[in-house]
Design brief:
There is one protein chain. This protein has 3 helices and no strands. With about 70 residues, it is mostly helical. It has one domain.
């Protein structure tokens, strides 16, 4: 029950937060969750990562870098 409530609160919090961000940042955050999940599966569950997994994760990180590179804060 605690996990269900915790996951629900986290999901709703992220959804609320990304509605207040520019679309470039929110897209990168939501895609980066895929990379974090893959790394967690690799480290915690002993999953094997194929070359296409590494390439996809690298492209997500590259997209995050390129989307914020020319941005003025």
């Amino acid at each position: 029950m605690l996990g269900l409530v915790g996951m629900s609160v986290m999901t709703l919090t992220v959804q609320y937060g990304v509605t207040h961000l520019p679309v470039q940042k929110s897209a990168v955050i939501l895609l980066f969750k895929v990379v974090a999940g893959a790394v967690s599966a690799y480290l915690l569950a002993g999953e094997t990562l194929q070359i296409c997994d590494w390439i996809g994760g690298g492209l997500i990180v590259l997209g995050a870098y390129l989307s914020t590179r020319g941005e003025k804060t």
